[in-house]
Amino acid sequence: MRKTLIAWWFVLGMVIFASCVPQKKLLLLQENPEVENQGKADELIKTFDLKKPVYTLRTGDVLSLRVQSTTPAEYDFLSAGATTFGATDPVLDGYTIDDAGDILLPVVGKISLGGLTMQEARASVTESLKPFLANPTVNLRLLTFRYTIVGEVSSQGQFTTYQDNINVMEAIATAGGLSPYANRGRIKLIRYEEGQAKVYAFSLLDETTLAKTNFYLQPDDMIVVDPLPAKFFRENVLGTFSLGFGIIASAVLLFTRLSN
Fold this sequence. Notes:
3 domains, 5-stranded mixed β-sheet, wza like fold, alpha+beta, 4 helices, Outer membrane lipoprotein wza fold like
């Protein structure tokens, strides 16, 4: 019995020892690092051609429009917008693209932006303002690029970006990054298109993912990060095993002392 107990303690010690990481592999910017497979900062490893999608505006998109010009302030008909509960609400203050693909500006009237890229829309608004404002400079941003991240990340939820493109890794970073038990080899992307929910899966362990079209998000995308099987093992099997082992070891120890 005593030898069995020693063997169990030996196995447990080996498991704990195997899980340890040397400090040399954790400490940043060391003076004399003695770690194998280090990267060299000035050495180019690989290049990938990125497939950044060009987002085109669609019905329901809300745009932030800020215009600067040399027109006197008293003739500025595009002054700051609505204020809600004492604070400016960017979406309520924006311009919504209607079913016909237009936005409606005071004095100017309708401007057709549906199907245009952000750069094309900016140019179109600028041209439409030239008869009314002197030397207009247009700053146009998309306010409704939202995406959702759930699963094994630090902070689940819905997020909004004011960029017209964002990739999966950038999106996960806004959610606080992946948890230790995130399945990096199978990240699911759910995309809503034409009345369908389309599910894609890709791996963040594979560097060629950088060159995939779906590496970049579209508005209303959802990222689902599943846990590794190790999480279930750690939280259920290992916990139960440790508890059971502790009870058995205590019982054996008590029995041994009583026997002596």
